[in-house]
Every structure is written in structure tokens, then in C-alpha cells.
Amino acid sequence: MAVTTAQPTRPSSGAPPTPGGRRSRGARSGIHGSGWTPYLFLAPFLVLFITFVAVPALLGIWISLHDWDFLLPNKPFVGAQNYTDLIDSGAPQFQPFWNGMKATGIFVLISVPFLVTLPLLLAIVLNRKFPGRTFFRAVFFAPFVLGVAVVGLMWRYLLDPSFGMVNGLLGALGLPSDTAWTTEQPWAWISLAAVTIWWTIGFNAVIYLAGLADIPAEHYEAADIDGATAWQKLRYITIPGLRPVLIFIVVTTVLASANMFGQSYLITKGGPGDSTRTAIMEIADLGLSQYRMGQASAMSYVLAVCLALIALLNFWLLREKKS
Amino acid sequence: MKRRNGPLFWVGMGLLSLVFIGPLLLVLLTAFKSQSESRTVPPTYFPSEPSLRAFDVLFFQDAASPVARWFLNSLMAATLQALLVLVVCSLAGYALARMEFRGKNVIFTVIILTLFLPGFIFLMPNFLILDKLGWLDQIWALVVPGAAGAFGVFFMRQFFMGMPKELEESARLDGAGPFRTWWSIVLPNAKPALVTLGVLSYLNNWNDFIWPIYVLFSPERLTLPAGLSRLQGAYSIDYPVVMAGAMLAAIPVLALYVFVQRYVIEGVASSGVKG
Description:
By secondary structure, chain A is mostly helical. Chain A has helices at 25-28, 37-64, 81-84, 94-126, 133-141, 148-158, 165-172, 187-213, 217-225, 230-241, 243-258, 262-268, 279-289, 293-317. Chain A has 14 helices and no strands. The longest helix of chain A is centred in the middle third of the chain and has 33 residues, at 94-126.
């Protein structure tokens, strides 16, 4: 580190420690009090933060107010037109955008219920005391450390309608072995949701497990004495005890599913037709392949506002109900 | 809670483990098949004549798909980003945890608020900023923008706030300045947090997909995930080759995971409870 402190904080040799060994006066206002030091510590992060987070968040709005074609020298100001085009059924972007929003909406609706409930069941099982518990936890979490590229490519092969091993295994069990997992609906949606569950179930399960560890065991013991059933314990102890964790999981899982991109990019390639072409695929393709950045930015802000509203709605629905 | 786990429980756990591990094993086995065997109906599970052909094609046969280069690019980008995140976030996190200064609350609040911004709104503007910096199609496009995330700062701040202050105070009484204290007292005591944050950043960067496929163009600059997705087009899907490539991307992170799974899982768990 070339940078040293501008004003070295001298040990306050004159001030004896307060009786009882409690903290000296300087400690209350932090270890290192004054001057430029805090700003020097913050500077490297703030430079990156301003350049790649704060400025872009505003620059995106600026771009969305222009007919911003990356490859053309002129980027005329068009006001809110990129936004109004999204609600004008005659505009060329109307249909692809709402097709993408619909695909994203469908994926959220079919994946989130499973991504919220299945990891909870898994966590409840893993919360029991049994030998090998941490091993199984590690196994179920393992797919999550893989990237979407690996997950997408491997499942595209395993789910291949003609020679894929999923159909092969189903055939070996005497079940229909000609399901068009990636090329027909509703199978394509089912495949994408199932792959996403396989990939991320361990993530939510680990968060639930941390929450379960905070529920006092006495509550369950008391319920056992009262003769409560497993369902009653789940309904009246586990779920209320997990409320903050549950809110976190619902909100983050909705956002994660709404960000779905790689799975349909690699497994269904947006098909069959455009049915699994999600909003993010539409935005990335329009903005970063066709370089129509003004329109793509407008779409990204509309999607962001929709997601913010849904997150608020979730907070409101899951809030503590006062009776 | 006190019930004994019967045989049914263990059969269930075994089957469930197979659901998570089995697909990876099937894919690994496919990498050793011939192209024709990868397309037989019904499929075979074990290669009838195991061969290294797919790896030979992957590494040596196609100059347009320099897989070894992609592997190195991924390694470099992930390592550099993890280091950058550790330095930048442990400095900033320390200032926010231990120092008093004007604007502290405003800065912290703004950083935390950006945690709630979805990543996709940054696609277009960051592409333009990288273009202005001349970083498109460069490794810096993969390393630097992603290091500016709020999570790392928040994570390090939380850890530092939970650390006892006594060591730092005695260092100060010994005449150490803030940077000396940070470097030789605070960081060595923050090892668990640094490992967790470093590994999470590394995994994130290694696995990133949407960003590298759009900001990299030259075949020799691609990362492994970005390159593999192009491989799919290049070979009219020679599946053993694509599966070998997928395993090449999977095995390093799975190996890392085996060694540090405690840190990964605890890092994830803490993100939910504290967040």
C-alpha cells in the first residue's frame, strides 16, 4: 500500500484507560477518528460504485429517452416515446415485449410455488438429527455451484426428445418415452421449471435451515406434550417462526425467476415458437445484439418497476397480521 | 423430532441424492462416448468403447474454439475479480464499521439501496461505459464492473462490526496507523469472512453467463461458459464434446466446493438471515 495515513492518529498517551478497563474516549467515535482516513478507505470502492452502479442507473434512464442506436452517430432525443411504444399495439416493439413479459410471468407463476415449498420440505428433513446430515446437505446444494451454462447444456442433452436419457429412463420404466421435453408446450415450461428447481433447491433450503435453527426446540416439545400432529406443528410453529425468512425467500425467488435467461437461451432457445423467450432475453437481444439500446433500456425500466411493485405486494401480503 | 429414521428414510435420501448427482455422472460418462453412441435410442449409460476423442477434439482439433484459452480466461477473470472484491470491500467495509465521518449514513444508505436494483437495468449503460473505457472484448469487462456490488461491502461491514475492538485499540496504542492496523490486525482476524466472500465472488464470476456472451467478441477472449454456448452451434452438436466442455467448467467449481463447502453454505445462509 503506497498510501499511508495523512494525519497519523497518535496514541493518546496522556489519557489513562477509564476504570474497569472500559473503552477510552476515542473508541466511542470509532477506532480512527478524523481527517481523510475514512475517505481513503472508501475511495477504491466508491470509484467502482460510482462508475459501474450509480452512474449507469441514471445513464440507463437517459438512454431510454433517446432513439439510441449504438451503431449510429445520431441518437435523437425522443422523450417518453420508447415507453409509450410499449403500450401502443401498433409499435413494432409492442408484441415482442409483451410476449417476453408473458413468458417471464408464466415462468414466475409455475416455478416460484415449487421453489418456495420444496426447499422448505427438504430443510425440514435435513433439520432432523441423523448421521450424514451435513453430507446430504452438501449433496443437495452441489448443483447450485454450477453455472447456468453447464446446467443448461447438460439438461439440453439429457432432455433431448429423441435420444435423451430422461426419456430413456422413462422408457426403461415402461412409461411413455417420446415426450417432447424441449420442443412442445407445456413440456418446455415444465422442463425449464424442473431444471431450475434441480439447480437452485439447495440455495433456498440452506436459507430455510438457518431459519429453522432459530426456532426454539421447546416449542416443538410443548406441542408434542399437547399431542399436536406434524401438520399442526408445521402450520402453527414452523411457518410462523420462519416468517422473516419466508418473506426473504418469496421476494428473492420471484426476482430470480423473473431474471430467467440462460435456461431458455440454452435449453429451448426461446421456443417452441417464441413461447419461452423471456423479457430478459428480449431486452438483452434487442439492446446488446441489435444495439437498439433506447428501446431496450425503456423495457428494462418497465420490467424493473413491475418487479418492484410485485416485491412490495409480497411484503404486504406476507406482513405480520395483527389481530 | 425424536423419531428414529427407518429404512424408508434412508432409501428416500439415497434416491434423492441420486437425483442430484446422477445427471452429473451421466453427463461425465457421455463425454467418453463416440458421437454416434451419444445419439442411440434407447440411450446407453456407460460408454461401450470409452475414448478420449471428445477431449482431443475439445483441446486440439479446432483452432476456432481454443478451449484451453477459455479455461485460462475464466480462471484469470474469476481470480482477479475475487481479489479486487476482497481488497475494495474490506477497506470500505472497515471504514463503515469502525470510523466516524461526515456523510457516512448517506453513503451507506445509498449503497444498500442499490442492493435492490435488478442487474438487467445495468446491461445497456455498463456496455456503453465499457465502450468509452475501451474495455469491450477485454478481460477488464469481466473483472471490474462486477466488483462494485453492494453485497461485499455490506457483508464485510457486518463481520467487522461483530469483531472485538480490543486488538485494534492495542495496535493503535502501539502507534500503528489505520492502514497498518487494517492490514496486520484486522484482516488476519477476518479470515473466515474473507474466504467466504472470496469464494462467492469467484463462483459468481466463473459462472457468469449473460454478461460475457455480450461483452466479448473474439474467440480467443471468451470465458468457458460463453465459449461452450458457441460450441453448441459450431459442431451441429457433437454432444460428447459439449458434455466434456461442460464438465471442464463444472469440475473446478465442484472441487473448490468440496474443500470450502462450509464457507459457501454458511455464506449463503447468512445472506438470508441478515438480509
